[in-house]
Amino acid sequence: MNEDIEEIRRRKMLELKKKLLEAQREEELRREYEARKEALLRSILTSEARSRLANIKMVKPGLVNLIENQLIQLAQAGRITSPITDEQLKNMLKKLLSKKREPKIIFR
To answer: Which domain holds residue 26?
Structure first.
């Protein structure tokens, strides 16, 4: 009986160690991805544009993630030839935000 309990404990410990290693690996991959993403954004945005995105990220992180992903896709496709200025970023934001539709309330 004690051997069974010890075996169960041993298996549980192995399981927990495995889950911990997986979580650490996922965190490491996430950090690597974020570092590559930041490096790429540094090369395609001016410091003012990066600063604006950082400010917006505090309020609307989802919007900033969308913009960052679009910028990265454009850069990878070769459609960004020079760093994007703050003014260009503002225009992009205006276009994105103007596309959002207001919810319609229909009374029946």
So the answer is: 2-77
